[in-house]
TrEMBL record:
<feature type="binding site">
    <location>
        <begin position="177"/>
        <end position="178"/>
    </location>
    <ligand>
        <name>substrate</name>
    </ligand>
</feature>
<dbReference type="GO" id="GO:0045820">
    <property type="term" value="P:negative regulation of glycolytic process"/>
</dbReference>
<feature type="binding site">
    <location>
        <begin position="9"/>
        <end position="16"/>
    </location>
    <ligand>
        <name>substrate</name>
    </ligand>
</feature>
<dbReference type="GO" id="GO:0005829">
    <property type="term" value="C:cytosol"/>
</dbReference>
<feature type="binding site">
    <location>
        <position position="59"/>
    </location>
    <ligand>
        <name>substrate</name>
    </ligand>
</feature>
<dbReference type="Pfam" id="PF00300">
    <property type="entry name" value="His_Phos_1"/>
</dbReference>
<dbReference type="InterPro" id="IPR013078">
    <property type="entry name" value="His_Pase_superF_clade-1"/>
</dbReference>
<dbReference type="GO" id="GO:0004331">
    <property type="term" value="F:fructose-2,6-bisphosphate 2-phosphatase activity"/>
</dbReference>
<keyword id="KW-0378">Hydrolase</keyword>
<feature type="binding site">
    <location>
        <begin position="90"/>
        <end position="93"/>
    </location>
    <ligand>
        <name>substrate</name>
    </ligand>
</feature>
<feature type="site" description="Transition state stabilizer">
    <location>
        <position position="176"/>
    </location>
</feature>
<feature type="active site" description="Tele-phosphohistidine intermediate">
    <location>
        <position position="10"/>
    </location>
</feature>
<dbReference type="GO" id="GO:0043456">
    <property type="term" value="P:regulation of pentose-phosphate shunt"/>
</dbReference>
<protein>
    <submittedName>
        <fullName>Phosphoglycerate mutase family protein</fullName>
    </submittedName>
</protein>
<dbReference type="InterPro" id="IPR051695">
    <property type="entry name" value="Phosphoglycerate_Mutase"/>
</dbReference>
<feature type="active site" description="Proton donor/acceptor">
    <location>
        <position position="90"/>
    </location>
</feature>
<dbReference type="InterPro" id="IPR029033">
    <property type="entry name" value="His_PPase_superfam"/>
</dbReference>
Length: 235
């Protein structure tokens, strides 16, 4: 069963504007963030959506509602509210929730000789960005790499198992900046299906941008990377 996923990064929030880590914590959409949601809604207005999902954060739910209001197909099908699940939340940053991003990544990387997120990524890879942050968290509440991906993979299974989703369904998923970037890092490195495409992962996905992924639901349980093929990024 093939599912056509439209992953939209939520609109800009005040924490985005202030350059603060925003995982499970939340802040409202700014005026620009509401405009981001409308822009995404206009892009997807004619996509025949069968279902819509998002995290249980208000920034994701508000973005989803704005998009669905502009989608004539989903309104005809009475899809006015997204399904909200904690599995679709952003990475949990634990003690560093709401902290300045530069400060947080320095705390995570400095003990390993890397003072920025980009340096951690370059020297140690994306897994380390999560593992180092959990290590630096005095409470060790931040998600490490294994904990993070277990939750994200459960989220994709929720979509595949939904009674509203069948073969060739078009599905909206409101996602988050680091989650989208993490998906791209994992998929473009480890799967042949995505290796022939050139995606600029030095650029974080913009608020309100659309990333398109085709999902082979039959492979999700056995090979997560092989199940997902990136069609477009940060559009």
């Amino acid at each position: 069963m093939t599912i056509h996923l439209y992953l939209v990064r939520h609109g800009q929030t005040y924490f985005n504007l202030y350059n603060r880590l925003q995982g499970w914590s939340n802040s409202p959409l700014t005026e620009a963030g509401r405009a981001d949601a409308v822009k995404a809604g206009n892009k997807l207005a004619k996509v025949p959506l069968s279902a819509a999902f998002c995290s249980d954060t208000t920034r994701a739910q508000d973005t989803a509602r704005a998009i669905l209001q502009l989608n004539t197909h989903s309104l005809d099908a009475n899809i006015t509210e997204p399904e909200a699940h904690m599995e679709f939340r952003e990475q949990f940053y634990g003690y560093f929730e709401g902290r300045d991003m530069n400060e947080a990544w320095w705390a995570a990387g400095a003990p390993h000789g890397a003072s920025t997120y980009a340096q951690i990524l370059e020297k140690f890879g994306p897994q380390a960005t999560r593992d180092f942050l959990k290590e630096a968290d005095p409470f060790h509440h931040a998600e490490n790499n294994e904990e993070y991906w277990q939750r994200i993979e459960r989220g994709f299974k929720i979509i595949a198992d939904s009674p509203n989703v069948d073969d060739e369904s078009h599905v909206l998923l409101i996602s988050h900046g680091n989650t989208l970037l993490s998906l791209m890092q994992r998929l473009t490195v480890n799967t042949d299906a995505n290796s022939s495409h050139s995606f600029d992962l030095t650029v974080r996905p913009a608020n309100g941008s659309v990333t398109r992924i085709d999902c082979d639901a039959d492979k999700l349980g056995s090979d997560f990377e092989a199940a997902l093929t990136v069609v477009g990024y940060n559009e």
